[in-house]
Design goal:
This protein is of the alpha+beta class and about 140 residues long. Helices cover about 35% and strands about 20% of the residues. The protein contains six helices and four strands.
Length: about 140
């Protein structure tokens, strides 16, 4: 599971009442892709980062990265940093090449645990646990 994916995940259970975010990460196995091809960040990837950055919950990303052993993200992002190509490349690496292979995601409200196996989070809820759909 990439950190980009984690940044948008929450516990959608009725018990969490819409407040099950961000999920705490307890890593067992973290993979950092150091393949030279993965390090080749081109114009398309930089455009992706520029468009994704305003939608990221930066505080949640910094916390998640720290829980996975990365302490290199700054506490805030300035306009100057956001437009810096070196920063964009480093952020792309953190979002796309750092992966939780095995571990647990825990809801901050309910304590419910969601296992991550082979990089895939299991967020399945029983029907009775689901939030009511608002139409």
């Amino acid at each position: 599971m990439r950190l980009l994916t984690h940044n948008s995940m929450r516990n959608n259970s009725l018990e969490a009442d819409g407040k099950g975010y961000p999920l705490r990460i307890t890593p067992v196995d973290v993979q950092v892709v150091d393949d030279p091809a993965a390090q080749n960040v081109g114009a398309r990837e930089l455009e992706f980062i520029k468009s994704a950055l305003p939608n990221l919950d930066w505080n949640a990303l910094v916390k998640a990265a720290s829980e996975m052993g990365l302490s290199t993200l700054p506490p805030t992002v300035t306009e100057e940093m956001a437009s810096n190509v070196a920063f964009q490349k480093a952020l792309y690496h953190v979002l796309m090449n750092v992966r939780l292979v095995k571990g647990m995601l825990t809801c901050p409200v309910t304590g419910r645990e969601f296992p991550v196996t082979n990089g895939i989070p299991n967020m399945m809820l029983a029907e009775a646990e689901c939030e009511k759909v608002r139409l």
